[in-house]
Amino acid sequence: MYDKEFILKEVNTIRNEIGHDKVNIFIEELYFNESTNELWIITEDRPDKSAIIGKGGWVVGKLREKLGLESIHVESYGDFLNKEYKLKLSKKTVRNIDLDLVGLENLEKTIDNKLNKIYSFNFETYFNENQFEESENIEAVVALSGGVDSSFSLILAKKLGFNPIAITIDPGTIILPKQFKNNIKLITESLNIKHEYIETDYSEVINESFTGKLHPCGRCSKNTSELVKRYAKTNKIPLIIFGDMLATGSQCINLQEDSLYRLNLPASLSVGKQEIKSLIKNYDLKTFKGFGCPLLYEVHRKFPHMKKFSIQRILRETRSGALEPGEALDLIWSFYK
Fold this sequence. Notes:
Blueprint: H1 4-17, E1 27-33, E2 38-43, H2 46-53, H3 58-67, E3 71-76, H4 77-96, H5 102-116, H6 123-129, E4 141-143, H7 148-159, E5 165-170, H8 178-191, E6 195-199, H9 203-209, H10 216-234, E7 239-242, E8 253-257, E9 260-264, H11 265-268, H12 273-280, H13 294-302, H14 307-320, H15 325-334
Parallel strand pairs: 2-3, 4-5, 4-7, 5-6, 7-9
Antiparallel strand pairs: 1-2, 8-9
Helix pairs in contact: 1-3, 4-5, 7-8, 7-12, 14-15
């Protein structure tokens, strides 16, 4: 329906109309989905991507309006090469795991499908077209915090047939506020998944955080991981699933101890934040602006130097491609509002 010359002409016309500098832009490929009225523009490199998006997204926004499209996705070819490489590593790693699980078989199929549709893969469309049978046995424990990443992981675990059970570590409202509990109730009831709260005492972590010598996220994450592992071992469940987006490729799944494996589900599929938001929007979950829990914000308020370590965590996700620079900037800026 569209060709490169037409799109470049329209982009340059819009850039000129709104006073942007004239630049040479190179497009690697175009993909148009007629059923969803969406256009993917794959540029040769990230500067080409920036030129098509324009300052504040003005150029691509006006292009979408002019062409009457539902949405336009602008991505760089180099980013897809990186994603493709990570997915191939994930596939090899998942295949080599000595676990005979329905969910892992379906995960490998999903990785294959994403590789075959690397530019236009959409989780909602994929699960509408591919409905997997669920395992008769509970194959995985999903660590559910009520945030978007863990909720996304729970949806995937259900759709892929792991027959998961969800558990939430509850140290109190300073770490797990009521609005997250509302999300937990909503997503588990919507998916018809059994859920349990595990109340625990994180007072040591909280007290140490208020000395200004300890950033709470690392210690909190470690404690939570240990409690989830303990639950899985006690109930003889072979897999624990987390919403980690960083442990991609060969690190997406690994042995913890005594035949217990940890699967970082979003990372195994090299998922970005926009893909997560696109799927969970169908579940009416409340999304929260900013980064972290009430404890972290209180630590930032009392000890501003701790913001540095929070920013480092955000930049790690940005370097991995899980976060776009604009998304990262919004998160960092939330620390100063």
